[in-house]
Amino acid sequence: MKPPPSKSRQLFTRRAGIAVAIASAAALALSACSGGSVTGNAADTKDRTTVVVWAGTSGSTDPLRKQLVEDFNASQSKYTVDIQVQPTSLTAQARLINAIKNKQGPNFVLDDGQPQSLGQVISTGAVVPLDKYLGASDSTLKKSNFTDGMLGTGTFHGKVYSLPTQGGDYALIYNKAMFKAAGITKPPATWAELQKDAAKLTIGTQQYGMYLPIGPGGTAPYYWQSMLWSAGGEFMNADNTKVEFNSPEGVRALTAWTDMVKAGTAYPASLQTPSDNGSTGAMTSKKAAMAINGAYNLGILDKALGADNVGVAPLPKIDKPAMNLGSNNSYILKGTPAQEDGAWAFLQYWLTPKVQAKWDIATGLLPTNIETAKNATWKSFLAKNPRIKVFADELAYANSRPSIDAYGAISDALSAELEKAMLLKQSPEEALKNAETAATAALK
Fold first, then answer.
1. Which of 113, 206, 369, 404 is the most exposed place for a label (fewest CB within 10 A)?
2. What domains, with CATH codes, occur in the chain?
3. Residue 279: its pLDDT value, please?
């Protein structure tokens, strides 16, 4: 995903490859056929249980991950984590399932970028529910360590099967120079204000006030769900058996976008670029003054526009603040009791505030453990990087996409109809009605 989880120029100078790193994490590849191994060399493996961990490449942060694993191995004498780095692949989940069926799978999966699709792996019976660990008296991790939204990313059929180990969301990114030239002194706090500002920022077809997501894939539905929630609507019912986005609130949320297309203040699809569904490219080319984007792309924007010229503000609300989580989740696969306990020990370690803060600062991701937000290192980092604080603060009210097998098909159906509405080929009412029909078929 999808993660989704920016900083000052100083940080992004160090992390020039962050966008690639996040993309790699979000597209975690779990190949049974190849990959490197990192076991950590700080401790003797005699009388230890080896825990095999599959993880995707993390780009320039690979050395840090290796060091953190070695630190874990050296911190205790019961387990040795063996990380097997897998190449990026679109068939990650299928390969994992195949490996499980052939008894060649890992004991633990680190940072799976498609947590909403985990149901297919759960159906093999190989994923260990985490409720017993989370409820244990000696556990350092409890359900209370996560917001409802965060915990929901790994909850299927009432049980917690995975925990979010990498967090992310999005915000309003804006060009400060364009704002100044248009006489706008502060970013919009509501969607009504954004629409007015977009009109002031639009200069014919040379410059548009806003880039709005369009095109195939899950980006448009992912962003639009925040609009729906902000308008008071729901994406699905409480037990995820029926879609509910075809509602007056849904129409209102989509009309907020299509009205801007009609007015000529939103970046048109004809100028879409392949980069990040267009939003990053639209801003770096100075074709758009505002866009919805994630922290992980700020390095690209800073380089193109200058860090002092790239502003970040909370996503404007329609009625109430709303945000959609992006997360990469980790989970335990069935093995011996010692292997499962070792995987849990490593998961607890990986989510300790000290380790998570170090990892998030290096990667541009956001904390998933509530306690990490209280960590002195993380708090110091936010104080020096107020733009990241905007993204972090939004997590307090963020919701998650439904964790069901059919989510991918539902998202695809909605994406296709949102695009037709944004191209003004049909009304918001028609788009959501058609999306509901297709989504209902996918659920059945």
1. 206
2. 9-168+325-399 (3.40.190.10), 171-324+406-443 (3.40.190.10)
3. 87
C-alpha–C-alpha distance, residues 169 and 325, integer Å: 5
**In contact, 163 and 146? CB cutoff 8 Å:** yes
β-pair partners for 236: 243
Which amino acid, one-letter code, is at 374?
K
- Return d(Cα 308, Cα 386) in angstroms, integer: 12
Kindly list the averaged pLDDT for each block of 10 residues, start to end, along the chain of length 444. 33 31 37 42 68 87 94 97 80 85 93 83 94 95 94 91 94 98 98 98 95 84 96 94 97 97 87 62 94 91 96 98 94 97 98 96 92 95 96 92 87 94 95 97 91
Q: 283-297 as b/e, with b when 16 or more CB fall inside 10 Å? A: bbeebbbbbbbbbbb
> Tokens 């320039």, residue?
60
User: What SS3 state is found at 172?
Assistant: strand
Residues near 192 by Cβ (< 8 Å), separated by ≥ 6? none
Q: Are strands 323-324 and 310-313 parallel, antiparallel or unpaired?
A: unpaired
Backbone phi, psi, residue 13, to 5°: -65, -40
Query: Which own/partner contact pairs does 271-274 have at CB distance under 8 Å and 24+ positions apart?
Result: 272/214, 272/215
For strands 163-168 and 155-156, give the pairing. Answer: unpaired
Place of tokens 């190449």: 87
**Whether the Cβ atoms of residue 116 and residue 404 lie closer than 8 Å to each other:** yes
Joined tokens for residue 365: 């991701």
pTM of the model: 0.84
Q: Provide the pLDDT for residue 357.
A: 97
Supply the pLDDT for residue 258: 96
Instruction: Give me the pLDDT at residue 120, please.
Output: 85
> Quick one: tokens of 369?
């453990």
- Tell me the C-alpha distance between 410 and 285, whole Å: 33
- Map residue 404 onto helix, strand or coil: coil
Residue 195 structure tokens = 């629409």
Separation of alpha carbons 390 and 360, rounded Å: 15
Task: Give CA–CA dist 411/431, Å, rounded.
Answer: 13
Question: What is the Rg, in whole angstroms, of the alpha carbon atoms belonging to the chain?
Answer: 22
Helix (H) or strand (E) holding 328: strand 326-332
